[in-house]
Amino acid sequence: MSDYAGIREVDVAVIGGGPAGIAAAIAARKEGALKVVVFERDWEAGGILQQCIHPGFGLHMFGLELTGPEYMDRYLKQAYEAGVEFALNTMVFQMDPPAETDGRKTASFWIMSPKTGIEKVHAKSVVLAMGCRERPAGALGIAGSRPAGVYTAGTAQRFVNMEGCMPGKKAVIMGTGDIGLIMARRMMLEGAEVVAVFEIMPWVSGLRRNVAQCLDDFGIPYYLEHSVCELHGKDRLEGISVVKIGKDRRPVDGTLRFVGCDTLLLAVGLIPENELSRMAGVEISPLTNGPVVNDFLQTSADCIFASGNVVVVYDLVDFVSEAGERAGSSAALYAMGKLSKPRELPIETTPNIRVVSPQKLCGGRDTTVFVRVAEPIEGRCRLFAEPGIFSQTLRYARPGEMNEVKISAEKFRALPETEKCVRIGIEAF
Questions:
Q1: Who contacts 186 (Cβ-Cβ below 8 Å, separation ≥6)?
Q2: Are residues 423 and 277 in the same domain?
Q3: Range of the domain at 349
Q4: Is residue 1 part of a domain?
Q5: pLDDT by residue (tens digit) across 27-72?
């Protein structure tokens, strides 16, 4: 380790310079933390929003419809004004398990960059904000060779919006994730033909507004309960085989057909980026694949907090920023020795809930618990938190859209000491 440059001491370290990380750093400074540093592996801060040039961001946070770069520009200006420090082009490659310092847990991790070499960072608290990654072709087990022309939707988005390079002229989208829907529209606007979108589930996994604006408005057909089962082509993709999927989740005989294309974009799910979380030894939820957190967004390691898509994949970046603010504020309070949680109750869910975050409640402040249903309820239903702390009537509940359970800190603190959990669910009328 001849390039080892020494030890850096910080109050709050934020790993990841996307919307969650920037919001966390601003909130930590506003809460009173002195030395707040954002560690970002890219050349620029901003995360995935650098390549999201479409509008639709900021409606909740700013009351405006902004593009991704416009949204992040506002946050970056706030960060610099607040005195947040940035370590760009800096990779965090190792997290150590928390250590005991003066009776309190503290964190440490290792970084490397061309400018400073290898350093060890000691932090009173850490906010994990690494975001998420796309599920690649190798995870899907599609038959065929490995021809050029198969990309994740996010990779194609970067090519088109930042590199000025079209991935192909005739595309098929596999999956109905929001990035795939947005890229269907983007490819059409750039002159490509989008043949169709195929989704293996009986419902769309993205937001309904994206189906309307990106598929319906452009006349792009989409087929539910269909899956791509084989790639054709040696050097370059020449087409795909697609088959209808039955109720038993098996291919339906006689439905196999060939679809000609030179590009396949994959929008088949996002995975929280949690290698560092696992290195630190924090508990990971089997439902979200992100850290288990309480309403302070504190993980099972007291000095480590997590926010944004590294915890759970959100629908809107506004929700990501709100989570970042909460995590940054909590991390600053912990670093200053001011964070207290007199009580912590786990959240239990009804069987039709697929995702819930946070998974524990402390009642330190009003909070929002985000949930997704496992299967759609196309009719009036009730979203609730028991015993008697929240109830709301919904017109419907769909897996592609998060539902918000608003938990009042006052109502939570009024729960009797005999209560051992909070139960959240959705039930049809």
A1: 54, 157, 160, 161
A2: no
A3: 341-429
A4: no
A5: 999 999 999 999 999 999 999 999 999 999 999 999 999 999 999 9
